[in-house]
């Protein structure tokens, strides 16, 4: 029955709905990166499902010519889990924002990561509530002035990556909102990963939090302020490619190649696939340079693999194949 | 077994109500279950109800730690576990104190006199010993030194610790009650042999104590004679004793098999609904996917996801859980996907009385969502018909593409009764609205002209890619639409869709009288009590009183008005 997947272009994944985001929003970049990544994944269009909650990010499914559900606040992980458990052949994507995923949906967010169901979560982090017009979110900074914190935000933020790793996320990547090519590549890697993959996109909100990530993501500073991590490659960055990371005691330290006898060999080599998340945690916390790329990609058994194995085992050992077998089993008696 | 004495002919009774009470941990549920199973196999109609504290194990001997099991057996139809007791078996003073009110004056109380110590009397807040102060003069009290006699019976059994010895005293009481009501102890011995296959001393100990109780009662002159309850007139067939929650789970299994869909349950543990999860999770051999979610909301949303992907999706809960599910239930209604929500009602509001019953979620089920969001609401009324209504809930959800709330309650969910086993071949067909062949101009909100059910295109089906969501949608394309006229139209369609279920559900019938002076009306789990009450009146010559019971609540049966108008007065009992 399996037929070869037809060759798609991004147009095949573009729906007939008019896209309604603010001009200049990074969401357009995410949308286009996804539409360009999907043809590369070798997945049939009818097998792709986008599930979202509420918020600007959550309009995403309407713009994809696939199956999709725009659901309710924070609950996309629950719905996506049901979709995937019902039909493990599907490629399931959760499109969510920082408020949707980490405030109202915080509980579902951590539990879906813990379980490791094979689905992908794209977290649009803009450190603000956009759709409700400018209140602080769980990733807003202390002191940040917003509609609901006119004198400055007093609630310390979550770091999505730290929260995710704390919940035992096996795959975590971070990417700027203005680099479509790298973003597409990360989406493809997230798709390939068997387990829950989380991609945090540092997404600029032009209206309510403009420039929130510009000190890392602006084209002029990006090379010096970001380290793009690749598995098996040395942790090197900078316009001159002469800066890198070493481990000094229990801290990551920025060094310059050529200074104090440091050579490229002294730099840490990125291992995304290691089970111990200690170094991944450090990388996630790093403020300078900010770590992007695939920080963690640890292969583990998925929930549906466990469930399927158990089901097969129970089926093999059971004498029940239909409900009548159950109903008439055990203690029954006849009335004549 | 040698029974040297010639047995007197037992006196024949129509029905009796017996309650076993003791500490949680005294094995009262097991004792009651054994007595009711034995009676059912003997041919009696039965109804049982367990009553236990919400603490896992309350302090021994305390008033709030009393656990009980009530059984009503009859040669006549039995529709409730009964109100007034013919026999109370109390294993300690706290059990006596909290249950004495229910014993009919002049009737029998069996107590373990060894448990009436100073300490236990204090714990039960007795100032004087009720066995000595004359306060039980209106009853026939049988004091039995059960703890001592149990120890005596087991003194030659090797390898038993003190705890196991005292624990088996419940079997002494069961043995006595078996003799009193002329029941065979064989079924219970068989049960020991099966249950404790790997622990021969436990089989030996329990069997010995059960026998000891039986023969003690036979020898004891305090019990003048034994009674019996003849087999009831029941429809021929194969039966089993079933609890309401098990019946609900099995009805859902049957619906999955009949519809050819896989069963998905998304649920979060809550009393008294959890047993449905416990039951369904066992049946992986039928491909059941039972997902214990992180909370009530994930319970229902995972089910909505599974429904979107083509499974028969269920979520189970109790009152406070339904409150949490409200928003997601509104979504399921809005996107018009099939979903069964089982609400096993308990005492409320808020956390309320988790292990006690109240039938108080009707309005929540009907209206507990924002906006105008009609769903089908049906209610089971007996432990056994939980099977039929769970099946019916799934059938209506699938055939009409809408959520269905099935209301049961702690009373019928934990109660048990004989169930005439239904083979899958006896169950009605279940159609579904799945589409797999693209038609010209296909839209996700194309509807069946008769039922108004929209078609069900599931991910993985080529050519039907579409997006749904909680925002109002255009009545044809399903795209987002905020047009006032469209919203009005969609609101009406959704209401009409539920209303048209009237056309397929059975008409309302009355019992005892078709017309007359008074119609008593009930719904859900109160059936047994109300039916019995009106039956009593009818038996006493009040032939102008009818009884109408609603299992279908939204929509109401199509002849409701007609039926109600045939009576001068209506009495709605809730």
Question: Which secondary structure elements does this structure contain, and how are they paired or packed?
Answer:
The complex is a heterodimer of chains A (336) and B (574).
Chain A: H1 27-41, E1 48-52, E2 67-70, H2 76-86, E3 91-97, H3 98-104, H4 106-115, E4 120-125, H5 160-166, E5 171-176, H6 180-192, E6 197-202, H7 214-217, H8 222-225, E7 226-229, E8 236-237, E9 243-248, E10 251-256, H9 278-285, E11 290-297, H10 303-317, H11 323-327, E12 333-335
Parallel strand pairs in A: 1-2, 1-3, 3-4, 4-6, 5-6, 7-11
Antiparallel strand pairs in A: 5-11, 8-9, 9-10
Helix pairs in contact in A: 1-6, 3-4
Chain B: E1 11-13, E2 15-23, H1 28-42, E3 45-51, E4 66-74, E5 85-90, H2 93-99, E6 103-112, H3 118-123, E7 140-144, H4 146-153, H5 162-167, H6 169-180, H7 186-195, H8 200-219, E8 227-229, E9 237-243, H9 244-259, E10 263-267, H10 274-281, E11 289-292, H11 296-308, E12 312-317, H12 319-334, E13 339-345, H13 362-367, E14 376-379, H14 385-400, E15 403-409, H15 410-414, E16 416-420, E17 467-469, H16 484-499, E18 510-511, E19 516-523, H17 527-539, E20 545-550, E21 552-554, H18 560-564, E22 567-572
Helix pairs in contact in B: 1-6, 4-8, 6-8, 7-8, 9-10, 9-14, 11-12
Class computed from helices, strands and strand pairing of chain B = alpha/beta
Proportion of helical residues of chain B: 25-40%
CATH architecture of the domain at 10-217 and 301-305 in chain A: 3-Layer(aba) Sandwich
Spatial separation of the terminal alpha carbons of chain B: 51 Å
- Extract low-pLDDT stretches of chain A: none
Largest interface: A-B, 60 and 69 residues
Q: SSE order of chain A in H/E notation?
A: HEEHEHHEHEHEHHEEEEHEHHE
For the structure shown, list the relevant keywords:
heterodimer; A: 336 residues; 8-stranded mixed beta sheet; 3-stranded antiparallel beta sheet; 11 helices; 29% helix; 19% strand; B: 574 residues; 7-stranded mixed beta sheet; 6-stranded mixed beta sheet; 22 strands; disordered N terminus
